[in-house]
Write a structure and sequence with these properties.
Elements (H helix, E strand, L loop, with lengths): L1 E7 L2 E6 L11 E9 L2 H7 L10 E2 L3 E9 L11 E4 L9 H4 L13 H8 L23 E4 L2 H4 L1 E2 L6 H4 L5 H10 L8 E5 L3 H12 L4 E6 L2 H9 L3 E4 L5 H8 L7 E4 L11 H10 L9 H9 L5 E4 L12 H6 L3 E4 L4 H14 L10 E4 L3 H10 L7 E4 L3
Bound molecules: nicotinamide-adenine-dinucleotide and zinc ion.
Enzyme class: oxidoreductase
Family: Belongs to the zinc-containing alcohol dehydrogenase family.
Organism: Deinococcus maricopensis (strain DSM 21211 / LMG 22137 / NRRL B-23946 / LB-34)
């Protein structure tokens, strides 16, 4: 079969590789009909995630048709059309029982490797390094899926691939990011980053009752889409964000602030005020993380900072004084995708949200290396690219 292979930092290619096979009796093989590139894939391509090996198949946002099931799979049948949540849940461990599926204790077959490198073991994730289990990803024609009965989610009749593909990750991720803001009637939510995750956070904040959403980015086409989703916008290359957010909220600051940027943050967003903090605080000089720092500085006293953006390793220059003395609440995490599938599918069926609005590019899997470049550099107004493994 054809698959998109990680070859090294900034090097991916499409290769012919052996078809996947069932390994455990709880596995199923899915013939992939649609797959997407995520901002998290860029962290792998940028080399921020340790334990990638040349030859690894990328991709954790994918869906398709079940073509083979193991002997212990009961609920899922050959022929089912399914989406596959990116974190793998065993369904039985302490975390999965609480619905915290992205913290599953049993889906990572390499816990020792993860503990040695990170000090803890994350759940298994498709196409996301050996620390998260070394599972082959879904930017391929076929993929082996684990704990099929617990994870594969049958798509209701009448919904297209485009409508449901983002249930695998970014729609639930935006929704959990917004839910983590503890939105109350009348609230203003600020969202740093208008990529796919930021855009779904904006849509979800309104679903959850936010009165206003203020979205921050530098790419006009992303800011345009944020406005179409109902947000007010700030271009951080043109406007001093901290001052603008204060002005727009009567001097108080937003009730909650979302960092939908993560590792590859660009610019500062809160230059002026952070420089002031620096003068009175001894901090080491590093450039990152801009967006997380900006979120802490911009949030009103007593507010909530929600971080769906992915980080790794250590970071410096966190304004801990502001964080503690403003009495902020912090929520983070990989998304517990499974928890949100029924309610977000209902929103799609009712037409409350149209997930397809973020799709700007459709390309055959063969052109995935080009698609990675477009998405990484935001060229050609690329917001989200969907790949067809069979075109
Ligand atoms: P993306 O790269 O398309 O979007 C990031 C956006 O942030 C870009 O539009 C960029 O211009 C903007 N940006 C950069 N620096 C900024 C700054 N200082 N202020 C404001 N905006 C800034 O990526 P995406 O697909 O939207 O993903 C965003 C983040 O969410 C990534 O870190 C990704 O790994 C993470 N993510 C997390 C989960 C989860 O489970 N928590 C799931 C999916 C993605
Ligand atoms: Zn993703």
């Amino acid at each position: 079969m054809k698959a998109l292979i990680w070859q090294g930092i900034n090097r991916v290619s499409v290769e012919n590789v052996p078809d996947p096979e069932l390994i455990q009796p709880t596995d199923a093989v899915v013939r992939v009909t649609a797959t997407a590139i995520c901002g998290s894939d860029l962290h792998l391509v940028d080399g921020y995630v340790p334990s990638m090996a040349p030859g690894d198949i990328l991709g954790h946002e994918f869906m398709g048709e079940v073509v083979e099931v193991g002997s212990d799979v009961k609920r899922i049948k050959v022929g089912d059309r399914v989406i596959v949540p990116f974190p793998i849940s065993c369904g039985k461990c302490w975390y999965c029982q609480r619905g915290e599926t992205s913290l599953c204790d049993n889906s990572n077959p390499n816990p020792k490797l993860a503990e040695a490198l990170w000090g803890y073991s994350p759940a298994g994730i498709y196409g996301y390094s050996h620390i998260t289990g070394g599972y082959a990803g879904g930017q391929a024609q076929f993929v082996r899926t684990a704990f099929a009965d617990e994870n594969l989610y049958k798509v209701p009749e009448g919904l297209t691939d485009d409508q449901v593909l983002f249930l695998t990750d970014i729609f639930p991720t935006g929704y959990m990011a917004a839910e983590n803001c503890n939105i109350e009637p009348g609230d203003t939510v600020a969202v740093f980053g208008c990529g796919p995750v930021g855009l779904f956070t904006i849509m979800s904040a309104f679903l959850l009752g936010a009165e206003r959403v203020i979205a921050i980015d530098r790419f006009p086409e992303r800011l345009d889409l944020a406005r179409q989703c109902g947000a007010e916008t700030i271009n951080y290359e043109e406007t001093e964000v901290f001052e603008a957010l204060k002005f727009m909220t009567g001097g108080r600051g937003p009730d909650s602030v979302v960092d939908a940027v993560g590792l590859e943050a660009h610019g500062t967003g809160v230059g002026g005020v952070y420089d002031a903090v620096k003068q009175t605080t001894r901090v080491a000089e590093t450039e990152r993380p801009h967006a997380f720092r900006a979120a802490i500085m911009a949030c009103r006293k007593g507010g909530t900072v929600s971080v769906p953006g992915v980080y790794g390793g250590l970071a410096d220059k966190i304004p801990l004084g502001a964080f503690v003395n403003k009495g902020l609440t912090l929520h983070t995490g990989q998304t517990h995708v499974h928890r949100y599938l029924d309610r977000l599918t209902d929103h799609i069926v009712r037409g409350d949200v149209d997930p397809t609005v973020i799709i700007t590019h459709r390309m055959p899997l063969d052109e995935a290396p080009e698609a990675y470049k477009l998405f990484k550099h935001k060229h050609d107004n690329c917001i989200k690219c969907v790949l067809d493994p069979w075109a």
